[in-house]
Amino acid sequence: MEPGSVENLSIVYRSRDFLVVNKHWDVRIDSKAWRETLTLQKQLRHRFPELADPDTCYGFRFCHQLDFSTSGALCVALNKAAAGSAYRCFKERRVTKAYLALVVRTQSQASRSSWFWNTGCTQAILSPKCC
User: Fold this and answer.
1) Whole domain around residue 72: which residue ranges?
2) Where is the chain membrane-spanning (predicted)?
3) Annotated catalytic, 55?
């Protein structure tokens, strides 16, 4: 996977209430620090300036978090009602998050009995009965 940039934001799903994006590894979700040159918040503003909400702290309503080094699906609520619904789903544990780590072992590593972690993927699934 190529390094993240403001242009390469992958959209997994979009409805009138939610946007699910594939967050790149080593990209913060949001930041107010000037030194953060790339964040998911900046990618969203670049790709969807019309969706930015000035009434929110970061311009978007992130439904959950992914660590800086974790790549995978991240859900963004597109309105206040959808954000409330997603919040309740997470609070009541009606949302399933699954983590998948892909492991690759090369022949040279096999002789040393060491493992190489190639990449990680995250998947967040919002159940239709939930939202």
Assistant:
1) 8-90
2) none
3) no
